[in-house]
Amino acid sequence: MSEKALAYIVKADSDDMGAVIGGLNKVSGDDAALLASRSLREDFDGCIGKAVLPDSGGPKAQSYAPPEAAAKPVVGKPNLKPAYPVRADQPVSSSIELTKGLVSMFSSYARDESQKKTYAAAGQCLSTLVYKAGFSQEALHFLAGGAPLGTGSIAEHLPNDKDKAIWQSPRFTQELVDCTTNATPTPLSDS
Questions:
Q1: What's the rounded Cα separation, in Å, for the pair 62 and 161?
Q2: What digits encode the pLDDT tens for the residues 138-178?
Q3: Nearest 5°: phi and psi at 178?
């Protein structure tokens, strides 16, 4: 990673990975892609695991405690009630039919209003990506319904292994990140 990119990350001083990657993309697209990559996360986790294991117990022994989740998971079961009506007998035939549902579903995981606005701004990108990914009609109906899950993962509620494999594939997850990273939320008006 370039010195310029590292300086940007330090200056950004944010735990919102999407925002950092989005800003970094303006500095260096290659470094932004590297930061968003699954391989970097895996390598980093491996290094941390090796570097901070307690040593022989001397006065400078380090210990590693895994970081806490950014947001406490919602206690209880996910809300599987669709936010939007979807006719099961009608196929989802365009990405437009998915936009509201996907925004609803993703927004249910948002930590704050800013993140909700990012998901709203990314709605068209998310729906186009999902529509073209090859999901079953049953999965598309579920996603179009926009159940505000709020906990767990979307993948665990998809109807079959093929849909789950698509959702969890590195390429698809990277494209989801790209949609939210490149989204430009509408600023609040002063009036």
A1: 42
A2: 999 999 999 999 888 899 999 999 999 999 999 999 999 99
A3: -60, -40
Tokens 């986790």 belong to which residue?
45
In angstroms, rounded to a whole number, what is the distance separating the alpha carbons of residues 161 and 163?
5
Does this model's pTM top 0.85? My answer is: no
Q: Counting Cβ atoms within 10 Å, is residue 158 exposed (0-12), middle (13-18) or buried (19+)?
A: buried
Go through the chain and tell me how many residues it has: 191
Continuous H helices in 13-160: 17-27, 29-36, 38-51, 96-107, 113-132, 137-145
Q: What is the pLDDT of residues 57-80, one digit of tens each?
A: 555 555 555 555 444 444 568 889
Token readout for 190 is 């002063």
